[in-house]
Amino acid sequence: MKKYSAKIIAALIFVILLAADYFSKMWVSANLAGKENMVIIKGVFELEYLENNGAAFSSFAGKQVFLISLTVIVILLAAVEFLRIPNTKRFIPLHLAFALLLSGAVGNLIDRISQGYVVDFFYFVPINFPRFNVADICVTLAVPFFIILFFFVYKEDETEFLFKFKKK
């Protein structure tokens, strides 16, 4: 059992984050769709229901087939690489980075496939920052996490197992 503990922990984190994304979107859809923003901190932070049919910052708006295809490819590649990570204490952070990436990607993919758009709702008023959701936070945190791990934590030879495809 100990051999698989890193993957089990990462899988549990994946499920928890995916559930947090799903239920937060459900709550926002049920309580804020077609209604006024919910002010959390006046002039700073609000919850605002938004249907985003694009990607980050509404880029690729209306290109659902492209976005779904790209997301499926990223998920498949990430899942394969996740399975290649050794189940050692040394690689727990890498397992967690993949759990973040995968939960975010899957969370938004579920929306795209089931609704044709992603529900975004977090809004920072002073900087008029684009609305985002829990899945977006997961992906956004995963990227610098990977950068830190690959540049400052793991030596190059420690991660040679990643993205290694057999040549025929």
Please provide a brief summary of the model.
The protein has one domain (2-158). Helices cover 55% and strands 11% of the residues. It has 168 residues and is mostly helical.
Explain what you see.
The protein is mainly α and 168 residues long. The chain is built from 4 helices and 3 strands, in the order αββααβα. The protein has one domain (2-158). The protein has a 3-stranded antiparallel sheet with strand order 1-2-3. It is elongated and about 50 Å long. The two termini are 35 Å apart.
Largest β sheet strand count, sense and barrel closure: 3 strands, antiparallel
Uncertain regions: pLDDT < 50 for 5+ in a row? none
Whole-number average pLDDT?
Answer: 91
Strand order of the largest sheet: 1-2-3
Overall strand count: 3
SS-derived structural category: mainly alpha
